[in-house]
Amino acid sequence: MLTLRENIVHTETDYGTALLDERSGQYWMLNPTGTLVLRVLLDGGSTAEATDSMVRSYDVDATTADRDVQSLLAELRTAGLVATDTVS
Protein backbone atom coordinates (compact mmCIF):
# COMPACT_ATOMS: atom_id res chain seq x y z
CA MET A 1 0.00 0.00 0.00
CA LEU A 2 1.24 3.48 -0.83
CA THR A 3 1.31 6.10 1.91
CA LEU A 4 2.85 9.51 2.02
CA ARG A 5 5.35 10.54 4.67
CA GLU A 6 3.82 11.88 7.85
CA ASN A 7 4.82 15.48 7.17
CA ILE A 8 3.35 15.52 3.65
CA VAL A 9 -0.10 17.02 3.23
CA HIS A 10 -2.07 16.96 0.02
CA THR A 11 -5.16 18.59 -1.31
CA GLU A 12 -6.98 18.33 -4.60
CA THR A 13 -7.57 21.53 -6.55
CA ASP A 14 -9.34 22.38 -9.78
CA TYR A 15 -6.01 21.79 -11.56
CA GLY A 16 -4.77 18.59 -9.88
CA THR A 17 -3.22 17.92 -6.48
CA ALA A 18 -0.86 20.00 -4.38
CA LEU A 19 1.58 18.13 -2.13
CA LEU A 20 3.34 20.10 0.62
CA ASP A 21 6.27 19.01 2.76
CA GLU A 22 5.48 20.84 5.99
CA ARG A 23 9.04 20.50 7.26
CA SER A 24 10.84 22.00 4.27
CA GLY A 25 8.05 24.16 2.84
CA GLN A 26 8.62 22.60 -0.58
CA TYR A 27 5.58 21.71 -2.64
CA TRP A 28 4.75 19.76 -5.78
CA MET A 29 1.82 19.93 -8.17
CA LEU A 30 0.29 16.91 -9.88
CA ASN A 31 -1.84 17.33 -12.98
CA PRO A 32 -5.27 15.62 -13.15
CA THR A 33 -3.72 12.40 -14.47
CA GLY A 34 -1.22 12.29 -11.60
CA THR A 35 -4.06 13.04 -9.20
CA LEU A 36 -6.03 10.06 -10.46
CA VAL A 37 -3.02 7.76 -10.05
CA LEU A 38 -2.22 9.06 -6.58
CA ARG A 39 -5.85 8.70 -5.47
CA VAL A 40 -6.00 5.07 -6.62
CA LEU A 41 -2.70 4.20 -4.94
CA LEU A 42 -3.50 5.99 -1.66
CA ASP A 43 -6.85 4.18 -1.59
CA GLY A 44 -4.97 0.87 -1.59
CA GLY A 45 -5.07 0.15 -5.31
CA SER A 46 -2.26 -1.49 -7.23
CA THR A 47 -0.27 0.00 -10.07
CA ALA A 48 -2.30 -2.20 -12.43
CA GLU A 49 -5.51 -0.67 -11.06
CA ALA A 50 -4.07 2.83 -11.47
CA THR A 51 -3.13 1.98 -15.05
CA ASP A 52 -6.63 0.65 -15.73
CA SER A 53 -8.15 3.83 -14.27
CA MET A 54 -6.01 5.94 -16.60
CA VAL A 55 -7.01 3.89 -19.64
CA ARG A 56 -10.70 4.20 -18.73
CA SER A 57 -10.51 7.94 -17.97
CA TYR A 58 -8.17 9.24 -20.65
CA ASP A 59 -7.37 8.56 -24.29
CA VAL A 60 -4.22 6.55 -23.54
CA ASP A 61 -3.11 2.99 -24.26
CA ALA A 62 -2.19 0.59 -21.45
CA THR A 63 1.55 0.60 -22.22
CA THR A 64 1.78 4.39 -22.02
CA ALA A 65 -0.43 4.52 -18.93
CA ASP A 66 1.69 1.92 -17.14
CA ARG A 67 4.87 3.81 -18.01
CA ASP A 68 3.33 7.00 -16.63
CA VAL A 69 2.24 5.28 -13.39
CA GLN A 70 5.73 3.85 -12.88
CA SER A 71 7.29 7.23 -13.64
CA LEU A 72 5.08 9.01 -11.10
CA LEU A 73 5.96 6.43 -8.44
CA ALA A 74 9.65 6.88 -9.15
CA GLU A 75 9.33 10.65 -8.87
CA LEU A 76 7.43 10.36 -5.57
CA ARG A 77 10.17 8.10 -4.22
CA THR A 78 12.98 10.36 -5.45
CA ALA A 79 11.30 13.42 -3.92
CA GLY A 80 11.05 11.58 -0.58
CA LEU A 81 7.27 11.93 -0.45
CA VAL A 82 6.55 8.23 0.01
CA ALA A 83 6.58 6.60 3.45
CA THR A 84 5.54 3.10 2.43
CA ASP A 85 5.79 2.15 -1.20
CA THR A 86 5.15 -1.56 -1.46
CA VAL A 87 2.83 -1.01 -4.40
CA SER A 88 2.68 -3.68 -7.05
Structure, briefly:
The chain is an alpha+beta fold. The protein is built from three helices and five strands.
Please tag this protein with its features.
88 residues; alpha+beta; Arc Repressor Mutant, subunit A; three-stranded antiparallel β-sheet; two-stranded antiparallel sheet; 3 helices; 44% helix
Task: Give the arrangement of secondary structure elements.
Layout: E1 2-4, E2 8-13, E3 16-21, E4 27-30, H1 32-42, H2 47-57, H3 62-78, E5 82-85
Antiparallel strand pairs: 1-5, 2-3, 3-4
Helix pairs in contact: 1-2, 2-3
Description:
- With 88 residues, the chain is an alpha+beta fold.
- Helix content is 44%, strand content 26%.
- The protein is built from three helices and five strands, in the order ββββαααβ.
- The chain has helices at residues 32-42, 47-57, 62-78, and strands spanning 2-4, 8-13, 16-21, 27-30, 82-85.
- Helix 1 (32-42) runs antiparallel to helix 2 (47-57).
- It is globular and about 40 Å long.
Helix-strand makeup class: alpha+beta
Order of helices and strands, N to C? EEEEHHHE
Low-confidence stretches: none
As a whole number of angstroms, the C-alpha radius of gyration is 12 Å
Number of strands: 5
Helix content: 40-55%
CATH topology description: Arc Repressor Mutant, subunit A
Cross-sheet strand order for the largest sheet: 2-3-4
